[in-house]
């Protein structure tokens, strides 16, 4: 089907008002839920073929999250979409004032490869819940999941409601040249800037879910064993290819040795002596990314792991001690299973490292010292974070998920996802039983009364 025809059919479908039918949306979402659960094994299979993601991680990071988003949306969509009555302004007396949630129209969703099922479908669910039509462009690097998304969406939705268009840079460029009412992009900062430029042509509103160098600060008040357990999970789940994974560690020098020893033990306990044979450890997405990661290890002080197998796109969980702040490893987002460990002795050391980078997407502090972690939360600007664990703020749909500065624009999840995809229309319904003449010309002798009114209601 030709793109212009798809867009035209989506526009017509939108204009027919069908996309706003809450009953229809609930039905379609229930069918999507059934389709996903009926095809659970195919989803496991696709993710395994794409980069050997285990069934557990696929349920945890992909299927489970989508089922929760569907359930929450079906449960709350009626109340999310109702016009919200707000306090009226005395200046407009008499009136009743409302905020209407209005769909934008045609939405383009561009997805990345690292959580190729979840990061494609979560924005799509929010977009249709808000009453939009969607074109979804999955990542070309996860071909099996991309194909499966086509099949799942085609089985559940009419193409004039949701259409999946597969492809890479050329196809995405063509899509970006079209006029959309909203663009939702998840991916790298560099491509985010391309998307923002394309959107600027038509002043199209956007959400950009990007990445960054997420710090993890560890003081000396907690059990290093517990920290190691939670850190190894957060850093090496999905083989480190998670936008909110801790990128580097800043640990108080007094506990660094102990933490490193516990990290090594914990990696072995999670993935065994040879993680390449562990059924739980995924692969790097492709050889291009593997060489990007291995080149980061050149001339660095690898104290654990570091071995790779290009034929298997495999890189061991790796620890690097005291990398130079100017090294390649510390220059850009790692997005792989390498954990650089730096140390600090005072807060000035922390600030000199954290402030070297753009505002990150995630931020982590391990500390039982409330005044210390509160200070960290308040001092630094970042998308979102967790204290005494990593990444779990993502799992609460009542919390916004998104970045700030170079780590992103806008946020979603739960009701915020619905709100992201709806324009908030201000509506005042003026009463006719009274018409205060003050605002009408001629204004002679009215200024003092106007000032009094502003003092009362302004
Ligand atoms: P990417 O930016 O390379 O690709 C994302 C999407 O953009 C893909 O669908 C791809 O086909 C398309 N694309 C790539 N190059 C393009 C170009 N030149 N013009 C137009 N479209 C193009 O990102 P990725 O490699 O898939 O994912 C990794 C990055 O995404 C990391 O930086 C990571 O931090 C970030 N990320 C962010 C989140 C988040 O929720 N904030 C989630 C996952 C990943």
Structure characterization notes:
- By secondary structure, the protein is of the alpha/beta class.
- The chain folds into two domains: 3-210 and 408-423, 3-Layer(aba) Sandwich (Aldehyde Dehydrogenase, Chain A, domain 1), CATH 3.40.605; 215-402, Aldehyde Dehydrogenase, Chain A, domain 2 (3-Layer(aba) Sandwich).
- The protein contains 15 helices and 18 strands.
- The strands form four sheets. A seven-stranded mixed beta sheet has the order 10-13-14-9-8-15-16, with helices on both faces. It has a six-stranded mixed beta sheet with strand order 5-4-3-6-7-17, with helices on both faces. Strands 1-2-18 form a three-stranded antiparallel beta sheet.
- Strand 1 (84-86) and strand 2 form a beta hairpin.
- Helix 5 crosses helix 14 (414-420).
- The chain is globular.
- 44% of the residues are buried.
- The model has no long low-confidence stretch (mean pLDDT 97).
- Nicotinamide-adenine-dinucleotide binds at residues 110-114, 119, 137, 139-140, 168-169, 172-173, 186-188, 191, 194, 209-211, 243, 333, 335, 361, 403, 408.
């Amino acid at each position: 089907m030709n793109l212009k025809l798809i867009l035209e059919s989506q526009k017509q479908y939108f204009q027919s008002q069908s996309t706003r039918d809450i009953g229809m949306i609930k039905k379609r979402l229930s069918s999507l839920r059934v389709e996903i659960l009926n095809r659970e094994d195919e989803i496991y299979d696709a993710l395994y073929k794409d980069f050997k993601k285990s069934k557990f991680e696929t349920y945890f990071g992909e299927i489970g999250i989508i089922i929760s988003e569907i359930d929450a949306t079906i449960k709350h969509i009626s109340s999310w979409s109702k016009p919200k009555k707000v306090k009226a302004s005395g200046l407009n007396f008499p009136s009743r004032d409302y905020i209407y949630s209005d769909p934008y129209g045609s939405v383009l969703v561009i997805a990345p490869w690292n959580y190729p099922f979840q990061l494609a479908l979560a924005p799509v669910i929010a977009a249709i819940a808000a009453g939009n039509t969607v074109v979804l462009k999955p990542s070309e690097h996860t071909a099996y999941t991309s194909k499966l998304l086509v099949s799942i969406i085609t089985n559940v939705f009419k193409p004039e409601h949701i259409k999946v268009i597969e492809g890479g840079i050329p196809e995405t460029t063509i899509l970006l040249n079209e006029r959309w009412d909203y663009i939702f992009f998840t991916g790298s900062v560099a491509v985010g800037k391309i998307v923002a430029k394309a959107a600027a042509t038509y002043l199209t509103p956007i959400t950009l879910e990007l990445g960054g160098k997420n710090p993890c600060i560890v003081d000396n008040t907690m059990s290093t064993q517990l920290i190691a357990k939670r850190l190894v999970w957060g850093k090496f789940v999905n083989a480190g290819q998670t936008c909110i994974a801790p990128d580097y560690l800043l640990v108080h020098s007094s506990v660094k040795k102990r933490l490193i020893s516990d990290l090594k033990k914990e990696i072995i306990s999670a993935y065994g002596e040879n993680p390449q044979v562990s059924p739980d450890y995924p692969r790097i997405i492709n050889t291009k990314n593997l060489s990007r990661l291995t080149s980061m290890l050149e001339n660095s002080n690898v104290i654990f792991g570091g071995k790779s197998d290009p034929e298997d796109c495999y890189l061991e969980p790796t620890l690097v001690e005291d990398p130079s702040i100017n090294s390649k490893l510390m220059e850009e987002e790692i997005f792989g299973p390498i954990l650089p460990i730096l140390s600090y002795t005072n807060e000035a050391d922390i600030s000199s490292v954290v402030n070297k980078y753009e505002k990150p997407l995630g931020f982590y502090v391990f500390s039982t010292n409330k005044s210390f972690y509160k200070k960290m939360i308040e001092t630094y600007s970042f998308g979102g974070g967790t204290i005494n664990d990593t990444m779990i703020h993502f799992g609460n749909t009542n919390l916004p998920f998104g970045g700030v500065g170079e780590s992103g624009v806008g946020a979603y999840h739960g009701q915020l996802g619905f709100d992201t995809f709806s324009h908030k229309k201000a509506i005042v319904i003026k009463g006719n039983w009274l018409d205060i003449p003050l605002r009408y010309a001629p204004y002679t002798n009215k200024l003092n009364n106007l000032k009094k009114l502003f003092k009362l209601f302004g």
